[in-house]
Specification:
about 280 residues, alpha+beta, Jelly Rolls, Arc Repressor Mutant, subunit A, 6-stranded antiparallel β-sheet, 4-stranded antiparallel β-sheet, 10 strands
């Protein structure tokens, strides 16, 4: 599991959407969103929900108590399954770190997927790991729910089904031995710790006896983005710190991170953050 999947900053802001699901405007609800729970105020205790809810932990840790009263440790990269009609509790550590994204499926949808063997109703937790590709699937569902009103479109439900399939597939892959895990983690560490310097990834790939093209494919399959895109995200994350916390000017931040000019820096910053670095520095989002 990669410890930092290069999530954009928008991932860690509260955004939710709920919609009516079903023919005739039935009261069943489908929802999706991103939640921050810095204190115990957001803890869920001894709750029984009617729909199925998958909670994907992006940051922080906590405890999930399942329907049999068994306690399970939760950390970033796990998915808690809140099953319809079964009592559960989710208690996050009150350290200000907890961030989750969630999706809500109607009970009938859940039961259909269980019958077809897509979902396992006996497992409280899945462990797909942190993947930008999963977050992007949550983002797509949230965007579609937020744009409309009334019934959920078949396309949105299909996206939700595909998300469930992806979570289960990544969970299965994570439980299987991964011969490339050490390489990918080393690459992420290198890209995260040396954002000001030119990457030496070809040499790293060679040290594992792999061509760069093969390494690039392996990295993308496990992290969800290519090494170059991951490095850009990490450089922009560092730029945010320099601009907001260390109060550098846009020009100073650009050169500190090894950009040849402020124009290329500003272009990449805006691609990732959706706003120019100058506006970000001044608190305009």
């Amino acid at each position: 599991m990669v410890k930092d999947a290069g999530f954009p900053e928008s991932t860690f802001r509260r955004r939710v959407a709920y919609r009516t699901l079903g023919v005739g405007g039935a009261v069943s609800v489908s929802g999706c969103g991103f939640l921050l729970k810095p204190t115990l105020e957001g803890a869920i205790r001894d709750s029984v929900s009617e729909p199925y809810v998958a909670v994907y932990v992006l940051r922080g840790s906590g405890t999930y108590i399942d329907w049999d009263g068994h306690a399970h440790r939760m950390t970033a990269g796990c998915v808690a399954q809140r099953l319809p009609g079964r009592c559960h509790s989710t208690i996050q550590e009150p350290d200000g770190q907890w961030t989750e994204c969630f999706v809500v499926l109607h009970r009938d949808v859940f039961e259909t997927l269980v019958r077809f063997g897509t979902m396992d109703a006996a497992r409280p937790l899945l462990w797909p790991g942190l993947h930008l590709s999963l977050v992007e699937q949550f983002e797509a569902i949230l965007a579609e729910l937020a744009q409309g009103s009334g019934q959920v479109s078949p396309r949105t439900l299909l996206r939700a089904h595909e998300l469930v399939v992806s979570m289960y597939a990544l969970d299965a892959a994570a439980r299987a031995p991964d011969p490339h895990a050490e390489l990918v983690q080393a690459a992420c560490d290198l890209l995260g710790e040396n954002v000001e310097e030119r990457s030496v990834l070809p040499a790293l790939a060679g040290s594992f006896g792999m061509s760069y093209e093969r390494f690039r494919k392996v990295f993308r399959e496990r992290v969800g983005v290519a090494p170059g895109a991951y490095r850009i995200r990490r450089r922009v994350e560092r730029a945010c710190q320099l601009l907001r916390e260390e109060h550098l000017s846009v020009k100073e931040a650009a050169f500190a991170l090894g950009y040849a000019d402020i124009y290329s820096f500003s272009r990449q910053f805006r691609q990732v953050m959706g706003t120019p670095p100058g506006a970000f520095r001044n608190g305009v989002r």
